[in-house]
Amino acid sequence: MKLWLGSYLLFLCVMYGCTGKKVMQTIVGDDKDCGTLATVRDYTGLDACRFLLELEDGTRLIPVELVNQDFLFSEGQTIKINYKPMKDVVTACLTSAMPVEVSCIQELKPGTKPGQEFLKRDCKEIEVPLTVSWMNKLIIRNKVSEVKKAYQGDQPFYAFYGNVYLTVYSCTGTEICESLISDTKSTCLAKLQHMEALKSIWVQK
C-alpha cells in the first residue's frame, strides 16, 4: 500500500510539479520561437523611458510594439524574445536604445520588484516645454523654434516646429508623426489641422 501511494505521489509531482516555486509567465507569441536572451532594465522616470531590454552584448532595446500588452516587466528579470527593429520610429525615451517590435516573449527568471505593464504612461498637460526633460532635449536636438499644443477629444498633443521637420507627440511622449515643414500636403500636418484649439505654448526668442 505504501509503495503504491509513494508511486502515485511521485506521478503527481512529475505531472504538476512539487517545487513550490513561483510560476513563470509562459511563452507569448504565435511562433513560440523566443531565441534571444535579454535582461529587463527599469528606466522609469528617465526622459520618458520605462523598461528597456538589454541583450548579452550590451545592446539596449525599447519595445514599441508588444505581442501581448499584459506581459509584466521588472528590474533584473531574465527573458527570451524575438524582435524586429523599427527603423522609422523615434520615441521620447532619449537613450541609444533601438525601437523594436517584440513578436515573442518568455520569462525565464522573475525580477526584483512586482511586475508592471510596459506601456503604462501618464498623460501630461504641459504649458512650459523647457521644464520637461524629454521636450527640452528634443527642442535642442531638432533646433525647434516653436511648440504648439492641440487637442483631439480631451487628449493634448504637442507639435514641435524645427528648422526642417514638424514632429507631433502625444501627451504620453510617444511620437505620432514627422514630416518636412515644407511639405504642405503631409499626413502629419493634416493630422494636426484636424485637431482642435491649436495654440503656441513656447517660441524661441
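[next item in queue]
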Amino acid sequence: MLYLILQLGQERFALPTRQIVEVVPFVSLKPIPQAPEFVSGVFTFRGTLVPVVDLCRITSGQTSHAWLTTRIVIVQYPVSDNESRLLGLLVEQVNATCKISDDKFSRSGVELPNTPFLGEFAKLDDGLVQRVNTDDLLNDEVRALLFRECA
C-alpha cells in the first residue's frame, strides 16, 4: 500500500494515501471558539469549509510549528457508514510517499486507549514510522462538533 510519510516534531508517521484528497500549503485558519485545543480552525477549500486538526497536537500535545514546510493534508473522513466529509490534518512536513506492505507493520505491544488512531510500526531503511488510522482520529464528541449536520 502507498503511504504519505509525515514529520510531526521528531517523529515520523505513515498515512495511507487512499483517503488523501490533496496536500496544500499552510494557509491562515479561522479559529473555532471553544473547540478542543487540537482543532486549529477552518478554511475554504474549493468552496467548501474544511475543519483542520493539528496532528502534532493530537499525537504529542505540542502545537505544530508554522514553518515553510507546514502543510494541510486533506482527507476524506468517514462521518457515518455511507458518508464522508473533508478534514484537514495540519502537519509540520510531508517527507515522501512510500510503498509499505502490510506485513512490514507490527504491533509494539503497547496499546493506549486514548490513541486508537495510532497503529502499528514499520521499520524502513531510515528508521521507524507509525501508521495513522484516520478513521479513528476523532472521538464521537469532536466528530459531532466538526460535522454537526452528519451527527
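[queue empty]
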